[in-house]
């Protein structure tokens, strides 16, 4: 059920479901476990989505919708192109901070949830590309190919998303995004 059509009770339940899954992952949970942990009925839980798998996907989508809104709000509060890129990627890092390793691993192992994360990663890479192009057009960044910088950012974001970068560097996803912000801003600054 789209979040705009949820009752206050359903919205609260979705927030609690998201918090639980972010903290503890979802692969090991049964619907009965969720009902017990969230102190609700199966009927109430199934009003959010029609199956356990759909509940997971809906929770992941809900999380990323909220994260996107928070990130864009942060960008809207900045004016300078370098600050906008930094604000964007640092806000992404902040939004990823609450995601437990168990949740990230479960998401990687569950194709429908992984697809949501991959789609959001692509949207984030497109947004970085747009912010770089705006900075180049405004003369705040040196003449770089925004599409190329965006592709480098996208490749790095995909490695972060898949956990590959963390395995090789020991960085959490949020720390990796913070480092990416620093690297990109330094690379494009005039």
UniProtKB/TrEMBL annotation:
Specify the DNA-binding region ranges.
30-49
Q: Which UniProt keywords apply?
A: DNA-binding, Transcription, Transcription regulation
Q: Which organism is it from?
A: Streptomyces triticagri
The regions listed as transmembrane in this protein's record are none
Q: Which domain of life is it from?
A: Bacteria
**GO molecular function annotations of the record:** DNA-binding transcription factor activity; transcription cis-regulatory region binding
- What name goes with this protein? TetR/AcrR family transcriptional regulator
Residues annotated as domain HTH tetR-type: 7-67
């Amino acid at each position: 059920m789209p979040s705009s059509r949820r009752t206050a009770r359903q919205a609260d339940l979705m927030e609690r479901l998201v918090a639980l899954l972010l903290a503890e992952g979802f692969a090991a949970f049964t619907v009965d476990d969720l009902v017990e942990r969230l102190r609700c009925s199966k009927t109430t839980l199934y009003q959010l989505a029609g199956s356990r798998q759909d509940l997971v996907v809906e929770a992941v989508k809900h999380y990323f919708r909220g994260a996107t809104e928070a990130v864009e709000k942060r960008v809207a509060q900045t004016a300078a192109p370098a600050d906008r890129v930094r604000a964007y990627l640092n806000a992404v890092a902040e939004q990823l901070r609450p995601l437990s390793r168990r949740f990230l691993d479960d998401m990687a192992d569950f194709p429908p949830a992984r697809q949501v994360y991959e789609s959001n990663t692509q949207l984030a890479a497109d947004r970085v590309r747009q912010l770089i192009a705006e900075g180049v057009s405004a003369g705040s960044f040196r003449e770089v190919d925004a599409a190329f910088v965006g592709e480098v950012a996208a490749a790095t974001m995909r490695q972060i998303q898949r956990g590959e970068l963390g395995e090789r560097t020991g960085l959490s996803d949020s720390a990796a995004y913070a480092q990416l912000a620093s690297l990109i801003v330094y690379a494009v600054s005039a």
